Amino acid sequence: MANTRLTQRKQFLYVANGAYMAKRSVVVQARESSSAHSSIRSGFTATKKTGNAVRRNHAKRRLREASRVLLDQYGQIGWDYVFIARKETADTNWRALLDDMKLALLNLRNHHKGVIVNQQQFAEQNSNRNSNTTRNKS
């Protein structure tokens, strides 16, 4: 599926009025799109509090790659997402960044159902999956 980018300020402001989930290394905002489209749109931003231009660009590159990996599986078609870098984004371990983003996307996906997944539940689900996988390989 082709994911498209949010490019205009009004698109970012529209998504900012939706739901959001803040994690240690990333803030994810999500809102059902106002336009009728059959893709997932995403935008990326980093404020000057994140660091100098090199650090901001590095953080945004990491967010773009993480969203490329996770959005098709955990995003919702017809929704817009904005990923906001934090100071920790550029230096966080890659696996930790993916886990933070995945957890935020899952919580936003279930937001309208009133289901919130916390870090402990997320770790338990992953350990159960890993133990089932190792059992199946034997």
Strands, helices and their partners?
Elements: E1 4-5, H1 9-16, E2 19-22, E3 26-32, E4 41-45, H2 53-74, E5 79-85, H3 94-109, H4 119-137
Parallel strand pairs: 1-4, 4-5
Antiparallel strand pairs: 2-3, 3-5
Helix pairs in contact: 2-3
Characterize the structure shown.
With 138 residues, the protein is α/β, with parallel strands linked by helices. It has a single domain (4-137), classed as 2-Layer Sandwich (Ribosomal Protein S5, domain 2). The protein is built from four helices and five strands. It has helices at 9-16, 53-74, 94-109, 119-137; strands spanning 4-5, 19-22, 26-32, 41-45, 79-85. The protein has a five-stranded mixed beta sheet with strand order 1-4-5-3-2, with helices on both faces. Helix 2 links the parallel strand 4 and strand 5 (79-85). The longest helix has 22 residues, at 53-74. It is globular. It starts with a strand and ends with a helix.
Descriptors:
alpha/beta; 47% helix; five-stranded mixed beta sheet; 138 residues; 5 strands; Ribosomal Protein S5, domain 2; 4 helices
Question: What is the helix fraction of residues, given as a range?
Answer: 40-55%
At the first level of CATH, the class is: Alpha Beta
By DSSP, the count of extended strands is 5
CATH topology descriptor: Ribosomal Protein S5, domain 2
Rounded mean pLDDT is 86
List the uncertain runs: none
The N- to C-terminal Cα distance equals: 35 Å
Number of helices, counting only DSSP H or I runs of 4 residues or more: 4
Supply the CATH architecture. 2-Layer Sandwich
Q: How much of the sequence is in beta strands?
A: 15-25%
Q: How many structural domains are formed by the residues? A: 1
Spatial order of strands in the largest sheet: 1-4-5-3-2
Output the structural class: alpha/beta
Order of helices and strands: EHEEEHEHH
Molecular shape: globular
Radius of gyration: 16 Å
Main sheet summary:
5 strands, mixed
